[in-house]
UniProtKB/TrEMBL annotation:
Annotated TM spans: 7-30
Alphabetical list of Gene3D superfamilies matching this protein: Spore Coat Polysaccharide Biosynthesis Protein SpsA, Chain A
Membrane topology: Single-pass type II membrane protein
Keyword ATP-binding: no
EC numbers for this chain: 2.4.1.-
UniProt keyword terms in alphabetical order: Golgi apparatus, Membrane, Signal-anchor, Transferase, Transmembrane, Transmembrane helix
Designated gene of the protein: LOC106568408
Region (Disordered): 111-131
Class of the enzyme per the UniProt entry, highest EC level: transferase
Name this protein carries in UniProt: Hexosyltransferase
Family as reported in the entry's similarity comment: Belongs to the chondroitin N-acetylgalactosaminyltransferase family.
Subcellular location(s) of the protein: Golgi apparatus, Golgi stack membrane
Classification via InterPro entries: Chond_GalNAc, CS_glycosyltransferase, Nucleotide-diphossugar_trans
Pfam family, one: CHGN
Amino acid sequence: MLRRGLLAWVSRVGVLLVLVCCSLSLLYVMTCSPHSEDNLVSHALPRPGMWVGVGGAAGGTRAAQSGPTGRNGYQAMLAEREEQHKLHITSLKKQIAQLKEALQERSEQLKGVQDSLERGTGEAGVARPGADRSHADLQEFLHSQLGRAEVHQGTRLPSEYAMVPFESFTLQRVYQLEMGLTRHPEEKPVRKDRRDELSEVLETALQSLNTPRNGADKGHTTKIYSPSDFIEGITRTEKDKGTVYELTFKGDQSREFRKLVLFRPFGPLMKVKNERVDTANVRINIIVPLSQRADKFRHFMHNFREVCVRQDGRVHLTVVYFGKDQINEVRSTLENTSREINFKNFTLLQLNEEFSRGRGLDVGARAWKGGNVLLFFCDVDIYFTADFLNTCRLNTQPGKKVFYPVLFSQYNPTLIYGNHDHIPPVEQQLVIKKDTGFWRDFGFGMTCQYRSDFINIGGFDVDIKGWGGEDVHLYRKYLHSNLLVVRSPSRGLFHLWHEKRCADELPPEQYRMCMQSKAMNEASHGQLGMLFFRHEIEAHLHKQKPQRPNPAKKT
């Protein structure tokens, strides 16, 4: 009997929700359809030169042109009514969307109740209070986030480095301090989620402004706000609390403004995954394309021997060499390493053609026949640690994830340490500070991915010759796929400084990229400035030296 009563109640509630949704849809259609009164108004609008009233030709014409019921007045009334109509339609659309979501949620709840009744578990009667309590707890937590954030009042900070700056934005632009890869202090939002975020904020602000407040605006003229009234906004995110938005709009008077503050609280942490990752049998095939530079390869093998052979022990090395010049020195270095530490996991491939980094990496990846190995595309002037190899393993997964680490690029040691005599060993130079190097966020050449993902994505564009370009093409292929691209700074991956030569044979775009990279690699902004002004600095120091008294001038 109880089960039948609950089923009947469930059916009635479902029918009632459907009727409410249909009624709102009908109301939306009636509101959006043109009214006959609007048509009558449009037919009744005075035309230029048409008489209004019975006051004669001249008086009628003046009334049509300048009176409150004249042409301009009617146009202003129509524009205002059209704006109200659009806002009303937007509000109705939102209400319908919310009702649809509520209907779907209730339908799922009702389906759960029906399933519970059919199983005879009796859990439906006690599940609802627990769900209501969880919802109330969540609402309480979100409101507490507003109190913790710096919205109504400031928080004592230990220093200027703890300050979280705001970004400012307008309808079309975002002005930012942390520029990242774009290098633009002002830009259009590139990511769709960022554009949608700011659009939602503006729409919410306009809806709030155009919603009458109970007695708050008494004595003020009612203005319909539109996006054109928006002047600017500022926003910042406190990563453990939420995002605050402050928006400024034009007011009713020339020196009056309306300001809104919105807050998007962050919810509590949610456990998404808890898994054990075993990397004991995950071998990495490090692929290095090379042309000449046998001395650099010896330095590379010194680090490889220590990190990959003695510390890690789960690495294979593939060297793809272009040309014949210095090939014997490279082969000798590999054979000596093999004899000294009993290392056999290496492959030397030779290509008698013009150097192409993309071509070399592609050949090295496809030459592997030992299953779906993890690939690390590397260069001869890269220094890495054993911790980085584990990071490479942990941030990749076949068919799901590829890893694009941001390496720390070393500045010219001669400029950092003053002269060659004061340059310490390489291991002591690898310090992550703003005066020793920079995060190479515009470089995409070092990457970890499984061989299957590399093959399925189409590999490199082997038609690109010489320096640069091939890594960006591959990176974009991964971005356009369904694979998750993990991009983060890596504290165990360094680019050692070396003099860069940009060949005259490079196409203009590649040459520009090469020269830009060369300029960024030399020194920090401040160090380059000191070099540029060194003559002024030397002249100043010379003036500051104490002047020796001239004996001839003694009396």
